[in-house]
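Appendix B. Chain record.
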Amino acid sequence: MTDDGERARIVGETILSNGWTRLSSYDLDYENRKGETNRLTREIYHRTPAACILLYDPQRDSTVLVKQFRLPAHLIGEKPFMLEVPAGLLDGDKPEEAIRREAMEETGYRIRDLRFLFKTMMSPGSITEIIHCFFARIDAADRIEAGGGLDEEHEDIEVVDIPLREALAMIDGGGIIDGKTIMLLQWAALNRDVLRGE
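Structure tokens predicted for this chain:
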């Protein structure tokens, strides 16, 4: 028995919605660890790849986050204006190109030295999205535009400069609950030497 996908065989797909993205119901024959095969049904939300970035200013020991309205948080009773690292869909670009574009659109910061950290699936049980995570050091001179998102996409993004220690404390206090943001801030806490360029 192997764990490389040979234990699962897709036998059917029903498209439930095909708007901004696709929601599908799949039937699959799945062989469990005991060697038994069962017919399972799973709903999968197809999302295109995305990228996110931790912007860090070593002179001020601060990070640049964005705050924007998130309908899913609102629907479940969480604070709807969420603090997050800048992020966006690749839209057919390479991850490095996409995150440079998104950082500029959302925060107004130009990215000089970009470092790829890791990629992650935020909800692998139901969503296909892969997020490419990056890090870049910035300073005040790198902010060459206002940011705030694109008017034509009706984005309403507030740029928030916050000391790194405060951002980390907000995780414990529930002020930051976005998964990708928590991962990148925890990476920063574990890699202070990298943050400072040592």
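Further analysis of this model is presented in Appendix C.
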